[in-house]
Give the backbone structure.
Amino acid sequence: METILIVDDDAHIREILRYKLVEAGYKTIEAGNGSEAIEQFTNLAPDLLILDIMMPEMDGTEVCREIRQTSTTPIIFLSSKDEEIDRIVGLELGGDDYVTKPFSPREVVARVKGILRRVQTINALPVDSEPGEENELTHGQLRLDLDRYTTYWAQEEVALPATGFNILKTLMSRPTKVFTREELMDGAYSDRRIVSDRTIDSHMRTIRKKFADVGGDPIENRRGVGYIMTACD
């Protein structure tokens, strides 16, 4: 049984999410602030966090930043803000998804299921196979190790969240094709749920910033159409 850590200073929100997640077959633990969340995460090692951004003492972005120093455990952000900059910041810090309050508990559960399904797929990949065509994608200086879900630019590792990796993998599958946002959604989200264009664009900004930090620029925006790979020279 997978364990979900629900972090929110609103006890009513925690209760709603706990009820729906338990109903869906998950075990839940809770934290009412950021400091408690770090303690619970360290001691109990949950499989996924649902993390509110706006909290007293230590907000969700600080919690995410600290967790990402040692762990790639999936994080879904909750926030009462719907500004694009908040989405970008959350994704850049390593969040895997973003839900704006007020939300549908069923939607949150669906997103939890989708993310954990992807994690199970990743964990099922072989870790002892030799590099080769079947488990790597390369394009110029860009390389994806599909077995270990890692990304490299000119031999330097670029840390991407799972959703960003899946977007890049979709683009690299046909590097001369312009992919629409809908096609990238299908490649990034195995549960085929609907996300907004803004979410895909936010992920793109995160990916491009990560590569810019190591001197790379692998993606080009074709205005009004979608995205395509650059030459990656």
